[in-house]
Amino acid sequence: MRHIMAESLAPTDGIRDYLAVQERKSLLRFLTCGSVDDGKSTLIGRLLSDTKQIFEDQLSALERDSRKHGTTGDDVDFALLVDGLEAEREQGITIDVAYRFFATPKRKFIVADTPGHEQYTRNMATGASTADLAIVLIDARQGVLRQTRRHSIIASLLGIRHIVLAVNKIDLVGFDKAVFERIIEDYRQFSHQLGFETIVPIPMSARYGDNVSSRSDKTEWYSGPTLIEHLETVSVDDAVVELPFRFPVQYVNRPNLDFRGFAGTIASGSVSTGDEVVVAKSGKSAHVRRIVSHGGDLSQAVAGQATTLVLDDEVEVSRGNMLVSPAARPQVADQFAANIVWFDEHALLPGRSYILRTETDQTSATVTDLKYRVNVNDFAHEAAKSLEMNEVGICNISTRAPIAFDTFAENRTTGAFILIDRITNATVGAGMILHSLRRAENIHWQSLDVGKHGRADLKNQRPAVFWFTGLSGSGKSTIANLFEKKLFATGRHTYILDGDNVRHGLNRDLGFTDADRVENIRRVAEVARLMADAGLIVIVSFISPFRAERRMARELMATGEFVEVFVDTPFEECARRDPKGLYARALNGEIKNFTGVDSPYEAPENPEIHLKTLGKSAEEMVEALELWLNERDIAENQYDSGGGI
Amino acid sequence: MNIALTHLQRLEAESIHIFREVAAAFAKPVMLYSVGKDSSVLMHLAMKAFYPAKPPFPFLHVDTTWKFREMIAFRDQMAQKLGFDLLVHVNEDGVRDNINPFDHGSNTHTHVMKTVALRQALDKYGFDAAFGGARRDEEKSRAKERIFSFRNAQHVWDPKNQRPEMWKIFNTRIATGESIRVFPLSNWTELDIWQYILQEDIPIVPLYFAKERPVVERDGMLILRDDDRMELRPGETVENRLVRFRTLGCYPLTGAIESDADTLEAIVGEMLTARTSERQGRLIDRDEAGSMEKKKREGYF
């Protein structure tokens, strides 16, 4: 831009017009990548120099530095313009990504100069994550190298769709067309599966400027654009404004009781006042009442804008949730498949817990399955137990809490995440979501107007799940039955889920292996949860021998709602009672997997209620249960009237 | 409404996003307020990011006691006008030892009164995130720095081992005692800053506008003699010249340029045809090659 001004030096009153033109220029973000010594930094230095972005004091500093550190003899070493760290200048390599800015009469550019060494791949990925185009440099003497492939794969995974294949140092192969064409062929061979929309090969010499900003007279066989011409005209519009509305909530702005605004950056689509929006994780909907901005309210806001929305309804939304279009919602799931690029010297291990961060959400996550690693040379899918630094793989991921997302292919903003080490807090990996792993991916939470508390209030009670666990014949069913009768007599609304009865219907397909027992409990726990949601007092009478499944059932229920009742009758007593004659048969070996005989029973460690039945009547047991229930209800009523909600 | 955002709208949105991210993720953020034009833009963006609320963090000015008097007056005036919480920190040890740019040189002065002072202030208040107005186009080592730039408990920057920074997903996790320096203006250029000041009508210190000022020519720079702590060397004279400043710092270390640009438009026009970078007026960058990186590693902003 500077040289333009120099030519037509505008008087002061022309400045605003000039700036208005600058404002309308589009922006292209790109990176330079490729192997070590392919000339990335030199190319950027050349671009900055050719577009008159280098000031005189910088140029004189550069000439000084070139004599000290330069690798180009008496010529100015443009690489020193971008290799800004001392370690880089001393070693003559690029360690970290540098961001530089330049403009031409047609466009503005932010260029990320990224390191070629494999060791610093994570810094290349950093530069690529915000770029729309990659210049892949190739030393004409070397051809396509391993790092060329690695960088191309990473660029592709990170969503870059436009490649400039800069066949550099063409002067060192005598401006040979055949070399150029062979490299193009090699590159196309391997890159056809990377999904690039455009690959534009340009023969150039970054050091001498051939085909960078001006056409070289030494490559008359080349009829394509110069690098600058191409960068000025390539269309990279990804039209995020056309995508469904996504608004990751970043910050809840609540300066006083009268204002509650949801602040964030619109990831895609647009929003107008009056629009209906849905809270992704709860399915609740509201309308946009105001789009708040410092200079006055707006009527519409679009992708890329950082804004503040005020809704017409007091829906529950906090950081990490998303306001979305009701017609096209994101997925909400806790299991999904993703491409992972690994950055850390400590390998990715399936089963280890990491912190997963999306743009605004955070939860813990584990890789449940490393499906394969991608060989960067031939794209072969290789079985792997771990992902080492700079490797790429496809994984299944399970998060502790569900997150709202789109696939990365659909939306680069809402489909990406990073993984963070819990102990060092290092950013250890980047992920691009491929798809949800739940078959329920298209089933969204339907928000219902009548809630659990309303249903329970109508019944004048508080929901609870009394989970009776104990050996077969310990007295669970007898006590449960009597307990329900007592509750029923006092006007409570109840239901008993009995192990034997449920196995006649809902769970008739399940046997008694450990896996089937786990599924048996899972289903019953889900049914109990639905019944508690309906406002009922649920009594579950199941042997439920494993602690892990009882814990799973507990975690399904609201806090304080799950009441573990250990019906504690010694094995000998149960075997002596043997009401169904099962112990006799099991001890004879006629029944397999019988709890207490050849299948373990894991007694509860901290049950809410511990019923020791020996020498006691069923009535005495039920009194203990009633007492517990009454005390809970009194305690909760006091809490409610005191605390409010 | 135009669907495509303009260049400045994009930059503004990115900066606001960064402000909000820090406010949401950190326990005790602070904004470093240096009173210069970049700080003015930063402050304006902070006001926008949290509107209608005020920024949920204080503004900290590290006063070396050698700032231009007009800067201090402007600072106090802005604090009053915008109603933000202003903290001023001075390294009292340095004051006691009478550390000054004339006797101790720019290096020692900047280290004691700026770098050490900043570390003192951050430790004193226990800030875990600090916003600064640095831009990547200013200097080579800045061009390498992340937007969220990690500092260990000793405030040290390790440029060879920066965290990857993917998309707009920032890793905001730190251990106790560690902190993050945050640069919302990373992707702005000097032209963007001026253009934004013009567009948004942002107040800036009058020293940026050309005016007759008493200057002394010293070491090839025009130094404004802001008070009589600056003693004249033999042969030096104070002349009134029409000058302005492209960048502001400690007055004995900041060179003025001869200019008649007394409006924002004229300043932008002058900048567009400038043949030297803005940091040329800063003595501290010239001490030695790579000096900015060295200062940054020690905790300078």
From TrEMBL, chain B:
<feature type="domain" description="Phosphoadenosine phosphosulphate reductase">
    <location>
        <begin position="29"/>
        <end position="255"/>
    </location>
</feature>
<comment type="similarity">
    <text>Belongs to the PAPS reductase family. CysD subfamily.</text>
</comment>
<dbReference type="InterPro" id="IPR014729">
    <property type="entry name" value="Rossmann-like_a/b/a_fold"/>
</dbReference>
<dbReference type="InterPro" id="IPR011784">
    <property type="entry name" value="SO4_adenylTrfase_ssu"/>
</dbReference>
<keyword id="KW-0548">Nucleotidyltransferase</keyword>
<dbReference type="Pfam" id="PF01507">
    <property type="entry name" value="PAPS_reduct"/>
</dbReference>
<dbReference type="GO" id="GO:0000103">
    <property type="term" value="P:sulfate assimilation"/>
</dbReference>
<keyword id="KW-0067">ATP-binding</keyword>
<comment type="pathway">
    <text>Sulfur metabolism; hydrogen sulfide biosynthesis; sulfite from sulfate: step 1/3.</text>
</comment>
<dbReference type="GO" id="GO:0005524">
    <property type="term" value="F:ATP binding"/>
</dbReference>
<keyword id="KW-0547">Nucleotide-binding</keyword>
<dbReference type="InterPro" id="IPR002500">
    <property type="entry name" value="PAPS_reduct_dom"/>
</dbReference>
<feature type="region of interest" description="Disordered">
    <location>
        <begin position="279"/>
        <end position="301"/>
    </location>
</feature>
<dbReference type="GO" id="GO:0070814">
    <property type="term" value="P:hydrogen sulfide biosynthetic process"/>
</dbReference>
<keyword id="KW-0808">Transferase</keyword>
<dbReference type="GO" id="GO:0004781">
    <property type="term" value="F:sulfate adenylyltransferase (ATP) activity"/>
</dbReference>
<protein>
    <recommendedName>
        <fullName>Sulfate adenylyltransferase subunit 2</fullName>
        <ecNumber>2.7.7.4</ecNumber>
    </recommendedName>
</protein>
<comment type="function">
    <text>With CysN forms the ATP sulfurylase (ATPS) that catalyzes the adenylation of sulfate producing adenosine 5'-phosphosulfate (APS) and diphosphate, the first enzymatic step in sulfur assimilation pathway. APS synthesis involves the formation of a high-energy phosphoric-sulfuric acid anhydride bond driven by GTP hydrolysis by CysN coupled to ATP hydrolysis by CysD.</text>
</comment>
<dbReference type="InterPro" id="IPR050128">
    <property type="entry name" value="Sulfate_adenylyltrnsfr_sub2"/>
</dbReference>
<comment type="subunit">
    <text>Heterodimer composed of CysD, the smaller subunit, and CysN.</text>
</comment>
